[in-house]
């Protein structure tokens, strides 16, 4: 028999509606912290028991609630933050719907005690929607809210909660999330009687470092901050340099007007800002704070306010990319051959007469040659020479940089003078890995593999020309890779890689960029290992893989002239970071060495 339509009992309707806002203890913590922030609190203390399932207590030193307003706190649509519909378009508070305390009180036993400055405190208890009378008594100032036995009257909802330890972690994560947005407020988090989080008021950057102090992946010295201002919005970010990254996006956080939001476009803007500074599949720590004119933003979309509509999203996206890119480049030390242009624009050194026509990475064995200041680095004769075929491959990939149009031609006598008075001096190779260079009052250790890898990476991205293979390379792939190639094979074609199916789980490579012709096997190996990924990340991984396979290896012994050619290219790089995001140049200053041995400069 069909059921008749009827009006729900108010208590049933109340508990159904509460489920949209409050679904677990961390939701309660989030809403109560928002209320404390809106009350202008300078200190917020949260204590939970049994993961917040049995009890959550939030204490703040805000302005408090008047005794006559306490009965209204836990009623639907009761708020002090919005009066008219137009107020929604100029929100300056974290809460505005008047649903938080109402939803919490419908799902638990809530005790609210509050005192305003200069007045007597009062307390009210609301037990799963049933109000008691207001009675005198409260804290010295501010508000104390205790939420007990969450979902005790809704057993079905309790069944979906996790173990207390898991719920406790979620509550702590909310606490950290809120603390990041309000560094001027002190936060304390207790799990039972144990103090798990203590964050005193501080600067935005220090708040990030304090909150993530136990994160073993975060390197404080590799953390930087930046800001930018544009029409009707401003940006501020605390981010790590490319030397510090994760393999997931869990620490890319977006805040809009201090609210944590899930906005993929801005996450994408951050990753674009880092670009090739990070390897494929790597993501930075980045906390981005966007302050937007309230008229341009709408948070009234989702009950948890995690979604946002931005009218000027495209403009913000563009500005975030530019800001992050500029700051990350500034955070990486620049190298320069010109002492007067230290860490500024690049500086091209005219080629010396003895090396002008030589291939930049042509093999010269272990012959002793002049250092850039006329000295001879020591190369032990017992070391095996580098494989000449490698240098041929490198030559095919790395084209010699032509002279700029405006660069002056140098006579042989000038060449010799340049060689004798060059700004750097190659000392030699150590551990068959590091090139030792002296320049001014500093000694540089250059990782030969990572340095050459970066140079090749930049060159490969600029290479043109396609060459068909005389005999196509056939290779087998796993099912996941086969599906990926079927859907994304056209992407590889954009880079000169012609892939055709030749059978079940079998493909063939018939063309390749001309400059890659000696590393076909590495390309095939890469293709056969990719079964998922964003196209931009895939491009970075492809280029990085090719550069890594073609670059000088650890343990290769290189002759002085080849080393000098590599060093010159390193000093011309805009950013000495390998395609995997690691810095490959270590600087040791004269002052540091003097201090290390107890000398006074």
What brief labels describe this structure?
single chain; about 600 residues; alpha+beta; Heat Shock Protein 90; Ribosomal Protein S5, domain 2; formyl-coa transferase, domain 3; 9-stranded mixed β-sheet; 5-stranded mixed β-sheet; 17 helices
Structurally, how many domains make up the residues? Answer: 4
Ranges with pLDDT <50 over ≥5 residues? 339-421
Second-tier CATH architecture of the largest domain: 2-Layer Sandwich
> Mean of residue pLDDT?
75
Can you give the helix content as a percent range? 25-40%
The largest sheet is: 9 strands, mixed
Number of DSSP strand runs: 25
How many distinct helices? 17
Alpha-carbon distance between the two ends: 98 Å
Main CATH class of the largest domain: Alpha Beta
CATH topology of the largest domain: Heat Shock Protein 90
Structural class: alpha+beta
Strand portion, in percent?
A: 15-25%
Within CATH, the superfamily of the largest domain carries the name Histidine kinase-like ATPase, C-terminal domain
Shape: elongated
Rg from alpha-carbon coordinates: 32 Å
């Amino acid at each position: 028999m069909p059921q008749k339509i009827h009006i729900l009992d108010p208590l049933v309707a109340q508990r159904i509606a509460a489920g949209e806002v409050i679904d677990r203890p961390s939701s309660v913590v989030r809403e109560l912290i928002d209320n404390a922030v809106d009350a202008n609190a300078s200190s917020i203390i949260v204590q939970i028991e049994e993961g917040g399932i049995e009890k959550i207590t939030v204490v703040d030193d805000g302005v408090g609630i008047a005794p006559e307003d306490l009965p209204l706190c836990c009623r639907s649509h009761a708020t002090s933050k919005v009066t008219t519909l137009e107020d929604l378009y100029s929100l300056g508070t974290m809460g505005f719907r008047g649903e938080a305390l109402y939803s919490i009180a419908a799902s638990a036993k809530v005790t609210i005690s509050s005192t305003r400055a200069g007045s007597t405190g009062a307390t009210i208890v609301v037990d799963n929607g049933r109000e008691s009378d207001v009675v005198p008594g409260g804290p010295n100032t501010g508000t104390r809210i205790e939420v007990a036995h969450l979902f005790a009257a809704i057993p079905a909802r309790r069944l979906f909660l996790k173990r207390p330890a898991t719920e406790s972690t979620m509550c702590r994560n909310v606490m950290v999330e809120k603390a990041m947005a309000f560094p001027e407020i002190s936060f304390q988090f207790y799990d039972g009687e144990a103090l798990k989080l203590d964050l005193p008021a501080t600067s935005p950057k220090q708040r990030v470092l304090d909150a993530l102090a136990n994160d073993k992946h975060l390197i404080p010295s590799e953390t930087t901050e930046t800001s930018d201002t544009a029409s009707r919005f401003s940006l501020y970010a605390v981010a790590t340099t490319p030397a510090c990254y994760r393999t997931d996006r869990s620490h890319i956080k977006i805040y809009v007007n201090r609210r944590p939001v899930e906005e993929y476009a801005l996450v994408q803007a951050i990753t674009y800002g880092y670009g090739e500074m990070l390897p494929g599949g790597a993501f930075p720590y980045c906390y981005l704070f966007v302050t937007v004119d309230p008229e341009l933003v709408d948070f009234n979309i989702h009950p948890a306010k995690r979604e946002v509509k931005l009218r000027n999203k495209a403009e913000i996206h563009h500005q975030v990319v530019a800001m992050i890119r500029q700051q990350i480049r500034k955070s990486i030390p620049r190298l320069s051959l010109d002492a007067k242009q230290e860490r500024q624009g690049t500086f091209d050194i005219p080629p010396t007469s003895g090396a002008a026509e030589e291939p930049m990475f042509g093999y010269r064995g272990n012959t002793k040659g002049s250092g850039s200041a006329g000295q001879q680095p020591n190369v032990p004769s017992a070391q095996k020479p580098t494989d000449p075929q490698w240098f041929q491959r490198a030559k095919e990939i790395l084209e010699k940089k032509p002279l700029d149009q405006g660069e002056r031609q140098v006579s042989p006598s000038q060449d010799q003078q340049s060689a004798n008075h060059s700004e750097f001096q190659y000392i030699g190779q150590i551990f068959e890995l590091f090139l030792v260079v002296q320049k001014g009052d500093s000694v540089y250790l250059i990782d030969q593999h990572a340095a050459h890898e970066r140079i090749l990476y930049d060159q490969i991205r600029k290479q043109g020309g396609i060459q068909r293979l005389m005999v196509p390379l056939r290779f087998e792939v796993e099912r996941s890779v086969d599906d990926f190639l079927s859907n994304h094979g056209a992407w590889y074609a954009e880079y000169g890689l012609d892939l055709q199916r030749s059978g079940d789980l079998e493909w063939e490579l018939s063309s390749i960029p001309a400059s890659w012709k000696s590393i076909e096997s590495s390309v095939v190996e890469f293709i056969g290992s990719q079964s998922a990924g964003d196209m931009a990340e895939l491009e970075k991984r492809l280029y990085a893989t090719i550069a890594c396979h073609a670059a000088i290896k650890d343990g290769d012994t290189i002759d002085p002239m080849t080393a000098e050619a590599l060093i010159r290219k390193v000093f011309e790089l805009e950013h000495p970071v390998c395609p995997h995001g690691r810095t490959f140049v270590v600087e040791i200053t004269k002052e540091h060495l003097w201090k290390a041995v107890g000398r006074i400069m």
